[in-house]
Amino acid sequence: MIKKIRGIKIELIIISIALFVLGLFLTIFPEVSQIIICRAVGIALCVWGVLRLMTYFRMSREDVFVSFGLVQGISLLAFGIFFVMRPEAIAVFFGTAIAIIIIIDGILKLQYAIEFYHMEAQRWWIEAIVAALMGVVALFNPFGSSTVLMMFVGIVLMVEGLSDLISIIRISSFIKNLRG
Question: Phi/psi zone of residue 91: left (φ > 0), alpha (ψ -120 to 50 degrees), beta?
Fold first, then answer.
């Protein structure tokens, strides 16, 4: 159980650092970042599609009829090629996708705040405030240009990464104190 918790803790720390680095990249290079991210996702979809196709063509005759590997492979490959060839078309939806991620992370922070409150932890309200701020800003999207939005999203992701890291440290400390 302790190994599993440590594994989860390390995974969450890595995710927090990745969020911070992604946020820094978005803040420094807002125009380029959307295109790069769309192309990277496109390449990943192409690889996934090729792998699904290879799996499909290696299946036994009996398994082919219950598999959707051909449809999945071709669809993933087609979407991947579109993402790589036309990242500008996909970038239009990028801000919305990031806003959804921020809202989901804000809900997670709200859960942390509620759990800290029930455990009678000090400063439980910090997570609640961060959750509320992230949710409100993501919902109302006060930005007209995608460059400003990317810079803001970058700053938000950096704050999210740091906030998540602090939450992880606080949770670990709280658990250590409970054990004695």
Answer: alpha
Mean pLDDT by 10 residues, the chain (180 residues): 72 87 89 84 94 87 74 94 89 71 78 84 80 73 65 85 84 74
Q: How far apart are CA 65 and CA 57, in angstroms?
A: 12
Distance between CA atoms of residues 145 and 163, nearest Å = 27
Of 56, 53, 55, whose CA–CA distance to 77 is shortest?
Answer: 53
Place of tokens 């989901």: 104
Take residue 29 and report the two structure tokens written for it.
């290079």
pTM for the predicted model, two decimal places: 0.53
Query: Are residues 79 and 48 in contact, defined by beta-carbon separation less than 8 angstroms?
Result: no
| Nearest alpha carbon to residue 90 among 37, 143, 23, 28 | 37
For the chain, the distance separating the N- and C-terminal CA atoms, rounded to the nearest angstrom, is 18
Nearest to 33 by CA among 131, 111, 147: 147
